[in-house]
Amino acid sequence: MTDAHSDAADAPAKRLFIKTYGCQMNVYDSERMAEAMGAEGYVLTDRQDDADMVLLNTCHIREKASEKLYSDLGRLKPLKAERPDLKIGVAGCVAQAEGDEIIRRMPVVDLVVGPQAYHRLPAMVRGEAPAVDTEFPAEDKFDHLPPARSGHAATRRAPTAFLTVQEGCDKFCAFCVVPYTRGAEVSRPAARILTEARDLAARGVREITLLGQNVNAWHGAEGWGLGRLIRALAEIDGIERLRYTTSHPNDMADDLIDAHRDEPKLMPYLHLPVQSGSDRVLKAMNRRHTAEDYLRLIDRIRAARPDIVLTSDFIAGFPGETDADHAATLRLIERVGYGMAYSFKYSARPGTPAADRAGVDAGVADTRLQELQELLTRQQKAVQQSMVGRELTVLFEKPGRLPGQMVGKSEYLHAVHVTAPDAKPGELLRVLITASAPNSLSGALIEAA
Ligand code: 5AD
Ligand code: SF4
């Protein structure tokens, strides 16, 4: 979490606890809300019990994610009973989807703010704006949130950062709530993104991950696409690594694929969800491409960057999915060979086109999910094992658990543990990979010649 801090040196700081659920965009939004509240005299605390305000930044993507909010709110009831002046806010996609229904169901909640209304949060907390705001205003919320401040020692930060470049989605996959909770696709202008990236570089950031629900649909003036934006970002001194997530296969433009070949700062890693390997299911999901289209695209990406590590999302048990469809998904996974992938059991989301379709038997969906996960775990292991013996570059992030140990990430986004007592966060050093554990690698520093 970032460093919300108070400019009001005279008033005692109020403490803000933020819990972030769900995707990386929520992590980014939480940071920006922390900064906005910092200007109001709030500092972040990691202890909910002594906070003056608790903000839950929620996720609506699957039923389980949504339900977590209500169990957490239930646990906050006694705290609020003890300290009635404690402010409780709900932000994020559940806030957007359920609005004031949240306060009706859970009266401990003081304010509800949707993802497009975060710039109004300070006024809401001051009591100068309505307590429920789930509008999609015409203005860009990022124009009104305070910019990331540079120059302060207090705002030095981790060597990696997220930067939202695009929000919302016009794809309307039949299972997905994102087009409803995050709204239509909107790209931020290149100039703003470049300014924010320069500020991040000035604050010690070395690696930026560009975020968007459909990040590769990003477009700027004069025909700029994401590939062009990446080339411009790569020119910023201090920025050594760029990544982007999450992409839709149909928006992988030639220029973006070329950037994977030509731009050394663009890391050889791509999250490109396919969801299913069956054309029938892909059609029912409204994905607008076939399994073969996806495989051809993967071939082109690998031709541009042969060592690229690919990752994906899969849904098991989408309505109408047969054993043959599931087998087609397993076949596609075998053909691609993923470095990592998330797989989920289908969860019917209210308001989405697939929600009224007859579901697959829950036991069958569980078995399919397990099969997907077994295969994907095997592939993940194999890709990690293939790193052993290789010399990689690690961007060090923080001390590890053992004395003298540092943890960082390789080009391929694997966590790497290295004994490097003198290495500092933000340093990029060559490392010989010596071993692979279930979720990380370990290695030894290669001494500079
Ligand atoms: N059920 C299961 N998984 C879902 N996802 C999105 N909506 C649903 C749903 N209703 C998954 C998709 C998407 C990822 C972010 O979450 O795989 O890529
Ligand atoms: Fe949801 Fe992604 Fe499909 Fe958009 S492209 S509707 S965010 S799954």
From TrEMBL:
Keywords: 4Fe-4S, Cytoplasm, Iron, Iron-sulfur, Metal-binding, S-adenosyl-L-methionine, Transferase, tRNA processing. Monomer. It catalyses: N(6)-dimethylallyladenosine(37) in tRNA + (sulfur carrier)-SH + AH2 + 2 S-adenosyl-L-methionine = 2-methylsulfanyl-N(6)-dimethylallyladenosine(37) in tRNA + (sulfur carrier)-H + 5'-deoxyadenosine + L-methionine + A + S-adenosyl-L-homocysteine + 2 H(+). Transmembrane segments: none annotated. Binds 2 [4Fe-4S] clusters. One cluster is coordinated with 3 cysteines and an exchangeable S-adenosyl-L-methionine. It comes from the Bacteria. This is tRNA-2-methylthio-N(6)-dimethylallyladenosine synthase. Residues 14-130 form the MTTase N-terminal domain. It comes from Paracoccus pacificus. Gene3D superfamilies: Methylthiotransferase, N-terminal domain, tm_1862 like domain. Residues 155-385 form the Radical SAM core domain. Its EC number is 2.8.4.3. [4Fe-4S] cluster 1 binds at C23, C59, C93. GO terms for molecular function: tRNA-2-methylthio-N(6)-dimethylallyladenosine(37) synthase activity. Its main location: cytoplasm. Residues 385-447 form the TRAM domain.
